[in-house]
């Protein structure tokens, strides 16, 4: 592959960011960006810095689906965010089903002995790692 991918877990208040290695095998956490999507603050200034730093070939955005596979309001909001990322930065945006990634991230942090107040700081970027890793695993050649 020899190109990095960025993974995003987009919420109404934060966006978790993860990055792949150059071979597209593993995902690592980067950071969590504070956003206010209801008021149009999408965190694009920081995202632009990360795009310049990592030079991703593609951005993988978590798509929150209902357990039955249907897409609801949050999925629509994620697709809207992805469209704005594509329009603003000219980078291909692909989507990865993110059902249960936040719950899975919470379990990983609890199992690791991370205290509740500290879990809030890490959960979104860990969810981004899980989204990106799932995408990488399903797109191996």
Automatic annotation (TrEMBL):
<comment type="similarity">
    <text>Belongs to the YqgF HJR family.</text>
</comment>
<dbReference type="GO" id="GO:0016788">
    <property type="term" value="F:hydrolase activity, acting on ester bonds"/>
</dbReference>
<feature type="domain" description="YqgF/RNase H-like">
    <location>
        <begin position="3"/>
        <end position="105"/>
    </location>
</feature>
<keyword id="KW-0963">Cytoplasm</keyword>
<keyword id="KW-0378">Hydrolase</keyword>
<protein>
    <recommendedName>
        <fullName>Putative pre-16S rRNA nuclease</fullName>
        <ecNumber>3.1.-.-</ecNumber>
    </recommendedName>
</protein>
<dbReference type="InterPro" id="IPR012337">
    <property type="entry name" value="RNaseH-like_sf"/>
</dbReference>
<dbReference type="InterPro" id="IPR006641">
    <property type="entry name" value="YqgF/RNaseH-like_dom"/>
</dbReference>
<dbReference type="Pfam" id="PF03652">
    <property type="entry name" value="RuvX"/>
</dbReference>
<dbReference type="InterPro" id="IPR005227">
    <property type="entry name" value="YqgF"/>
</dbReference>
<keyword id="KW-0690">Ribosome biogenesis</keyword>
<dbReference type="GO" id="GO:0004518">
    <property type="term" value="F:nuclease activity"/>
</dbReference>
<keyword id="KW-0540">Nuclease</keyword>
<dbReference type="GO" id="GO:0000967">
    <property type="term" value="P:rRNA 5'-end processing"/>
</dbReference>
<comment type="function">
    <text>Could be a nuclease involved in processing of the 5'-end of pre-16S rRNA.</text>
</comment>
<dbReference type="InterPro" id="IPR037027">
    <property type="entry name" value="YqgF/RNaseH-like_dom_sf"/>
</dbReference>
<dbReference type="GO" id="GO:0005829">
    <property type="term" value="C:cytosol"/>
</dbReference>
């Amino acid at each position: 592959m020899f190109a990095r991918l960025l993974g995003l877990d987009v919420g109404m208040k934060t966006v978790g960011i993860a990055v792949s290695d150059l071979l597209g095998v593993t995902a690592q956490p980067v950071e969590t960006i504070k956003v206010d999507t209801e008021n149009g603050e999408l965190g694009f200034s920081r995202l632009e810095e990360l795009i310049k730093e990592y030079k991703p070939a593609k951005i993988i955005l978590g798509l929150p689906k209902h357990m039955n596979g249907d897409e609801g309001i949050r999925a629509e909001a994620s697709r809207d965010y992805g469209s704005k990322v594509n329009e603003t930065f000219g980078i291909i945006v692909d989507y990865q089903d993110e059902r249960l990634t936040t719950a899975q991230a919470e379990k990983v942090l609890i199992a690791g002995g991370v205290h509740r107040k500290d879990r809030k700081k890490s959960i979104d970027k860990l969810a981004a790692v899980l989204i990106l890793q799932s995408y990488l695993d399903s797109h191996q050649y």
